[in-house]
Amino acid sequence: MHYYAHPDVLVDPQWLADRLDDPSLRVIEVDMNPDLYQDKHIPGAVFWHGLSDLFQPDLRINFDPTAIANLLSRSGITQDTTVVAYGGYPGAGAWIFWFLKMIGHADVRVLNGGHQKWMEEGRPVTAAFSTVTPTQYLPKPLDISLRVLSAEVQAAVSNPDQVLLDVRTLAEYQGDVYLMKPPEETERAGHIPSAIHLEHSLTLNDDGTFKSFDELQALFNGNGITPDKEIFPYCAVGGRSAYIWFVLKYLLGYPHVRNYDGSWNEWSRLPNVAIEK
After folding, report:
1. Quick one: 34 exposed, middle or buried, by C-beta within 10 A (0-12, 13-18, 19+)?
2. Which is the CATH superfamily of the domain at 147-267?
3. Phi–psi pair at 247, nearest 5 degrees
4. I need a labelling partner for 150 at 20 to 30 A (CA). Which of 31, 189, 193, 263 fits?
5. Is the pLDDT of residue 164 over 90?
6. What is the assigned CATH class of domain 7-142?
């Protein structure tokens, strides 16, 4: 039995429940649908909308410094705040982990199992909107070592030492779905040539928690995704691939992982790049 490479980045519901009144800690819930937050969220949690707060209109992740400063400032976060991220979808906290690491935030944790596990354990929830005192957050320059750009992805297609990892659903990988819907005539669906397909949800237990180190290691190694290679995960818009970046880098300890946050949203629109179905 092995333990995660960096177990300190994961917290369980009991750990969080014991610290809900800690002023140095801020809980962030990220979801596409605000109804879940409005009905029953963790007391004190601040809501981030998975689209409007985190993406530009073209579905690229919004790294504009002013937008980032506004988002974190209104959330009552300072550079010294411990941020615990979760969502209705269990993997949501892990992609917020990547997002915050991109902007240089030091202390970020992921609630293991997210909202699902919190509810299953009968933890307290509230419908009261969280009010926090705004701060003045100054984001650091982006940590570009955490992302990979399209030119490097193109080079990786024919490089045996690099793995392109498609973590979308099988329907997306096969080209039946484009950005969560059937493709229109002008939209290019499919996958990047040479990409290995491994759906991101296979890393989770039924209760939304991450599978054990040994189970994760067997899953990735069994699909040729080994730590001696450089791994570039991608999905539709960069969120699910950021989640897999977290799993590989922080749970399994893979040394060379970078998220292709442009993902299919970018690749499918590039001129003169190959697409397979």
Report:
1. middle
2. Rhodanese-like domain (3.40.250.10)
3. -60, -45
4. 31
5. yes
6. alpha beta
pLDDT per residue over 238-257, tens digit each?
999 999 999 999 999 999 99
79 a catalytic residue? no
Domain positions in the chain: 7-142, 147-267
CA Rg value for the chain: 18
Measured distance CA(264)–CA(270) in Å, rounded: 10
The whole-number pLDDT of residue 89 equals 87
Backbone angles phi, psi at 5, to 5 degrees: -65, -40
Residue identified by tokens 């442009």 is 262
- pLDDT for 78-122, tens place per residue? 999 999 999 998 889 999 999 999 999 999 999 999 999 999 999
Whole-angstrom distance, CA of residue 152 vs CA of residue 154: 5
Domain 7-142 and domain 147-267, same fold? Reply is yes
- The active-site residue, picked from 9, 92, 235, 236, is 235
On whether the CB atoms of residues 275 and 195 are closer than 8 A, the answer is no
Separation between Cα atoms, residue 162 and residue 232, nearest integer Å: 7
